[in-house]
Specification:
457 residues; mainly alpha; Hypothetical protein af1432; two-stranded parallel sheet; Cyclic_di-GMP/3'3'-cGAMP_PDE; transmembrane helix; HD_GYP_dom
Length: 457
């Protein structure tokens, strides 16, 4: 179980208190609350979240998340802000939570849309949206609805960035980057659908007619589920490849996953676009998949490699590239798999690329790979201390490694710390020294590859 940092818990508590404060007007004596509409909309949103638990519509993926925001926006257009905020709570509480601690995550998922719905309702009222809804006059009715959708989007993205910074420890300067732009168009569409629901709800046909607006949402929900099934299949394929490498090369067991995570840390320090991070993680995970084509006797040899064995093992980047050539979703990761042993001065392999000729992902993975190798204990040598390994990387920066990537790794270590690992199966493997940094809680760093002759790979 991954513990939620104290800062994130405090942030979630503040969000919950703010959401509770938004509903306080409902407790005033004589407050006119349309409870029947509140209960209908809250129940409808809760039912809409149920596909996440269905093996036919979602299975193990949260297909309902975000798909039925039109219900919340319709509530913002139909109800007073305090009442609208309540609509999101039951659906969030019954929604699927796969990660622990489930209770804290459930509470966060209730507070976040409640605040967003309250903000949307306030923006809608500010532009006199209630009057335009009583007598729909297009396109004038679109203006307050657009303001409500924009407020909904702004609140959600603001809260999302905050949780990334506090819970995931994403650098503050990049936590909010791109969130608003990616969310704006979908939320504008949700706002239009919510307005259609609200107009039909108030029409002579009544609330039942508003349900027809949700039909496209259910279709998109099904498509979303198919996408996640395909993504899960991709990840299962990658796990199978990595497990095959781990079984074959006992010296680097677990190394691939750790290099993937370390590569992502470096990329975040470089402010790479979030959409590239998963591909880079795949690059780190699969960088040594070509070892499946290397004879096991060479991989498991205890002594120094002969020149012929060295040439064989140096073919593993090309083997790996051939293995993943047809996997389209890997994108830039394929180039990283092929070139992660190139050196900045052109003395690397397989093609002797130099400087900017080496793909960016390959330069990131090279640093993560070498650092993880040096800080892992193997049956044939003890791990180096983190500081010593960093100094070695700095010494080789400009010749073997990209200095920018080395500096990014150093910053990431200062922020997150590093936990060394024992990766050999040998019972007598020496224990790995543990860094005493106060940040040494993330446990993201792994053992690295064994290079020809027994040095770091």
């Amino acid at each position: 179980m991954r513990a939620i940092p104290t800062a994130a818990r405090a942030y979630i508590l503040c969000a919950v208190l703010c959401a509770a404060a938004c509903t306080l007007p409902l407790l005033r004596p004589g407050a006119a609350v349309p409870w029947s509409s509140v209960l209908l909309l809250a129940g409808l949103y809760a039912v809409c979240e149920m596909p996440a638990r269905s093996r036919y519509l979602g299975g193990s993926v949260p297909v309902g998340a975000g798909s039925f925001f039109p219900v919340l926006l319709a509530a913002a257009f139909l109800l007073p802000p305090a009442a609208a905020a309540l609509v999101a709570v039951p659906g969030a509480l019954v929604g699927r939570v796969d990660k622990r601690p489930a209770a804290v995550r459930r509470i966060w998922r209730a507070a976040q849309p409640a605040l967003a719905t309250w903000g949307a309702a306030q923006a809608y009222l500010l532009l006199d949206g209630a009057r335009t809804l009583r007598a729909p006059d297009f396109p004038y009715a679109l203006v307050p609805a657009a303001a409500g959708a924009l407020a909904f989007c702004l609140v959600l993205t603001a809260l999302d960035g905050g949780i990334l910074a506090t819970a995931e420890r994403v650098p503050v300067r990049t936590a909010w980057r791109g969130l608003l732009l990616r969310s704006l168009a979908p939320h504008c569409v949700h706002g239009l659908a919510g307005l259609m629901m609200a107009v039909l709800w108030r029409s002579p046909y009544g609330p039942l007619s508003a349900l027809f607006v949700l039909l496209p949402m259910y279709i998109s929900c099904w498509i979303f589920a198919q996408y996640h099934r395909e993504r899960a299949a991709h990840q299962a394929t990658i796990r199978a490849l990595v497990q095959a490498v781990d079984l074959k090369d006992k010296y680097t067991r677990g190394h691939s996953e750790r290099v993937g995570r370390a590569s992502v840390l470096i990329a975040r320090e470089l402010s790479m676009d979030e959409r590239r991070l998963e591909v880079l993680r795949f690059a780190g995970i699969l960088h040594d998949v070509g070892k499946l084509g290397v004879p096991t006797r060479v991989l498991r040899k205890d002594g120094p490699l002969t020149p012929e064995e060295r040439r064989v093992i140096e073919l593993h980047p090309e083997y790996g590239h051939e293995m993943v050539r047809g996997i389209g979703f890997l994108g830039e990761a394929r180039a990283a798999i092929l070139h992660h042993h190139e050196r900045l001065d052109g003395s690397g392999y397989p093609y002797g690329l130099a400087g900017g000729q080496i793909p960016e992902f390959a330069r990131v993975v090279a640093v993560a790979d070498a650092f993880d190798a040096m800080t892992s204990t193997r049956s044939y040598r003890r791990a180096r201390p983190v500081g010593e390994a960093l100094e070695e990387l700095r010494r080789c920066a400009g010749t073997q490694f990209d200095p920018q990537m080395v500096r990014a790794l150093a910053r990431a270590l200062k922020r997150h710390g590093w936990e060394t690992a024992v990766t050999a199966d040998e019972a007598g493997a020496a224990p790995a020294p543990r860094e005493t940094s106060r940040h040494n809680r993330c446990g993201w760093w792994r053992g690295g590859a064994r290079a020809p002759g027994g040095g770091p790979g």
